[in-house]
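Researcher: We plan to redesign the surface later, but first we want a full-length starting point. Tokens attached.
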């Protein structure tokens, strides 16, 4: 089921991106030779007019093949190469625009239906399903060892009874003593501090399922990590009228895009300076796992994740790296500056080399995800 949901999510994101390129090319009077979902080998193809619509074996992306995008047929008015740099830039950036627009539409719908969000005094008054949720789990922490996951809601905490004195009857006594209903983050913090170093039981809600886990809070945790090794947030489902949802959807999309851009810049800096791929990066396998986790929490969480991934794809594709949309825009900028086109053979070779590097990076990240999520 996780794999099926992931493929559906990926199809929505890829088709939205490629549809942007497709519609911009068609509106510019160009011939689109193929609109493909997935990468070859081809499984199914239908030709309608000038365009072949195909489904391919590897469902990890898609493509739109436009006549003359390799620099050929410059004299043909339906060729990509025959158009001005401005029109070619518009077609190139249209996929990113569609990913951004998709996120905006999803977030508008989400705010109208009701999205989970961290609460403040104002939103807490109108929120439903208020709970204390796990928003991050530190590697190697008691929380990770106990099986706590992102999105888990902590309902209550229970401590073991102290040892009974000799001669005290034990009939009717339960296994656990003090019980705390977790209504606020401070409730759990006080409880955990009191029973640091002792095994406690926590009732956790994951999606619609309640379960109990045993965990031992650390007495001397690493600085900034806490006894359990989790970050918590008080969350709830908050819905807004449609007029306000439109504004919040647009505003949130721009804020998230800016935060994602800063995050990518930091990851690239870390990659260049330290020569390592940061642990925060995930490939298709990691995204599939996150998709499954979001789906288990509920449809609205999955919707939120799709919007976030769509914005990530928009930012990533605008990076000035060969084979990405941003790399192609970079070459168009060079063309405008020098007053003439870059040699198509050189440009195509650079994009091919960039694609090979991206595929190699994807393979390395995928292998690391397999080890990280212990899939085998």
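Model: Full-length starting sequence:
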């Amino acid at each position: 089921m996780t794999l099926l949901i992931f493929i559906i999510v990926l199809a929505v994101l890829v088709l939205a991106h490629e549809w942007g390129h497709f519609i911009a090319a068609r509106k510019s009077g160009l011939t689109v030779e193929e609109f493909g979902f997935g990468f070859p080998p081809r499984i199914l193809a239908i030709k309608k007019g000038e365009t072949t619509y195909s489904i391919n074996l590897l469902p990890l992306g898609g493509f739109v093949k436009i006549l003359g995008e390799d620099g050929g047929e410059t004299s043909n008015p339906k060729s990509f190469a025959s158009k001005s740099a401005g029109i070619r830039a518009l077609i190139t950036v249209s996929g990113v625009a569609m990913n951004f627009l998709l996120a905006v539409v999803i977030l508008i719908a989400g705010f109208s239906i009701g999205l989970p969000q961290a609460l403040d005094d104002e939103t807490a008054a109108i929120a439903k399903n208020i709970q204390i949720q796990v928003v991050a789990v530190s590697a190697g922490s008691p929380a990770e060892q106990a099986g706590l996951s992102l999105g888990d809601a902590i309902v209550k905490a229970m401590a073991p009874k102290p040892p009974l004195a000799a001669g005290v009857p034990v009939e009717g006594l339960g296994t656990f003593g003090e019980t705390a209903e977790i209504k606020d983050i401070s409730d759990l913090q006080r409880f955990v501090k009191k029973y640091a170093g002792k095994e406690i039981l926590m009732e956790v809600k994951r999606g619609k399922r309640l379960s109990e886990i045993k965990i031992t809070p650390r007495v001397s945790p690493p600085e900034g990590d806490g006894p359990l090794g989790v970050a918590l947030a008080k969350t709830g489902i908050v819905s807004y009228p449609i007029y306000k949802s439109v504004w919040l959807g647009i505003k949130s999309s721009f804020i998230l895009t800016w935060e994602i851009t800063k995050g990518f810049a930091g990851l690239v800096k870390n990659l260049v300076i330290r020569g390592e791929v940061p642990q925060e990066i995930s490939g298709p396998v990691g995204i599939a796992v996150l998709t499954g986790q979001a789906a288990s929490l509920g449809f609205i969480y999955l919707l939120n994740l799709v919007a976030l991934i769509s914005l990530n794809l928009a930012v990533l594709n605008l990076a000035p790296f060969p084979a990405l949309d941003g790399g192609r825009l970079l070459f168009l900028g060079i063309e405008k500056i020098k007053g003439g086109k870059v040699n198509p053979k050189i440009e195509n070779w650079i994009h091919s080399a960039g694609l090979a590097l991206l595929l190699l990076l994807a393979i390395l990240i995928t292998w690391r995800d397999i080890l990280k999520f212990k899939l085998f």
